[in-house]
Amino acid sequence: MGRFRAVWRDALALLLSLTDKRTGGQAKLIAALALLYAISPIDLIPDGIPVLGVTDDLLIVPAVLAFAARNLPAPVLYQARGKVNRLPRIWPYVLGAVLGVVALFYGLAWVLARN
Questions:
Q1: Are 14 and 70 in contact (CB under 8 A)?
Q2: What tens digit of pLDDT does each residue of 58-79 get?
Q3: pLDDT score recorded for residue 92
Q4: How many distinct structural domains can be found in the chain?
Q5: From CA 37, how far away is CA 53, in angstroms rounded?
Q6: CA angle (5, 92, 81) in 5-degree steps
Q7: Rounded to the nearest 5°, which phi and psi values hold at 59?
Q8: Within 13 Å of residue 33, how many CA atoms lie on the same side as its CB?
Q9: Count of CB atoms situated within 10 Å of the CB of 17
Q10: In the prediction, which pLDDT does 1 show?
Q11: Where are the transmembrane segments (predicted)?
């Protein structure tokens, strides 16, 4: 669980550091590709499968963003991690609730499409 939190922390740190002038082009490109994958209809696990269709977005996108965060200059990464640590502790629950609602709508749409 600690590793999962570290991946999400670094993914958020990268997103928060994209506007920093010291952030390199490679990190920005990888972030853009990860976000493009997240909104793309092409997935490893099709989104039409209830609940499971969203899991690849929940695992792959943060992992790629965390990898890109490793390419940030150390001062930028530390500053962004500080910003993430100052975020309210409620954000994982809000994110989970939003993703749960999205998964519920996917499942409902799948059930309705089959009838």
A1: no
A2: 778 788 878 888 888 889 888 9
A3: 67
A4: 1
A5: 13
A6: 50
A7: -105, -45
A8: 13
A9: 24
A10: 61
A11: 29-46, 90-113
User: Who contacts 53 (Cβ-Cβ below 8 Å, separation ≥6)?
Assistant: 43, 45, 46, 47, 106
Tokens 């929940």 belong to which residue? 58
User: Mind listing the pLDDT tens digit for each residue in 12-29?
Assistant: 788 888 888 888 888 888
Whose CA is closest to 17, among 66, 89, 64, 90? 66
CB 18 within 8 A of CB 69: no
What pLDDT digit, counting tens, does each position of 75-100 carry?
A: 988 898 888 888 777 766 777 777 77
Q: How confident is the model at residue 42 (pLDDT cuts 50, 70, 90)?
A: confident
Give the range of the structural domain holding residue 59, as residue numbers without chain letter: 2-114
Count of beta carbons in the 10 Å neighbourhood of residue 31: 22
- Of the candidates 7, 21, 3, 20, the one whose C-alpha atom is nearest the C-alpha of residue 69 is 7
Cα 50 from Cα 106, distance rounded (Å): 6
Q: What is the pLDDT of residue 114?
A: 79
